[in-house]
Amino acid sequence: MEEIIFRPVFLRAFQSNRKQLRLPNTSLFEELHIIPQPIYDITLNRKQRHDLLMKSHLSVFLAKKLVGNIRYPNKHAQRILTQQHYFQDMKCVASLKQNENSFLSFAFHPTEPILATASDDWDVKLWRLSDDGSTMSRVKNINVGFSVSSIVFHPKLPLLVTGCDDRSTFLWRLSPDCSKVKYSASLLQHTEGIWSIAFHPTALIMATGSGDSTAKLWKLSPNGSAATCVQTIKHTGIVFSVEFHSTAPILATCSVKNTVKLLKLSSDFSEATCIATLEDHNSFAFHPTELIFATGSSDNTVKLWRMSPDDWSPICMASLAGHRGSILSVVFHLTLPIFVTSSSDRTVKFWILYRECSSATCVSTLDGYSDIVTSVIFHPKRPILATLSNDDKVNLLK
To answer: Model-level pTM?
Structure first.
């Protein structure tokens, strides 16, 4: 039986007549349909598997154009590859609908099968997902007292933080199963509503973005029950997005003026130096491990950027077309070479990264939404995507 071997920079495909076809770059994958359709085997060694998973968009969805059977080197490779393919055939399995009030924010718990939703009815609701994600049962209702525009779980501490439109940021302690919630502290240093909250991946630092045209950095107590403001960063317009890079000392902020700023943070987080300002971008996301980030633009394109390891300056590597409206949300998968975008064109698109994350190919489009899709998030452990749209719906897709 003939064999297809994946390599870092080219694919060798042996046709049934033994004539070898050599593809020197990924731009020629559209020509793969010329290869006959008999059953092939794919064998991946350790290095090839790494290249396949992390540096290339060669995946099960492409391979299945050629093969009817795939032989995986181990269960880990099978799980990753089949999961990657799985995201391309997602369908809605559960929905939450608000009849009178609007959903404003949502977040997945980092370890538990819990989804938190926030709305303008002053309540935060915690929902437990079933094993297959098809049903959600409410486990807790938190009356915050104000409309909640941002919500986030701490990645390690049993801590939930809510940002409200009255300028308040509340800290809440959670029981292990999230069935009990205890108020811990209020942060009132902002003068306008809180639009965005983010935690540093390793340090006890939190960032908030506000309608007062500032972002603030907060130092959390060891158990997360209190926080002290250590820095205020001025911006232009409402700061509706803040995000830390996982390894680099970089904070990104995004404002309603369609401006993204990259800020280098000092080791004690007391100083921030602007290293780049990107205009005409209204959404942003860091890659979970690489010095890569994506921006969504008002010109209907997604742009991929690489930061220099020397001075963190960004260079645009690719501009990706496909949406027919402004890009409102971008999110990278934590482990797979995938990112997802949502747009004012009422669609969600899946993209697979390749060429060492320097470009991407759209592999699937989800439509059927009745209104603008404002936000998308991946579940950190399960192959589930959640979407939030202006028709007051939260959809779970699997």
So the answer is: 0.80
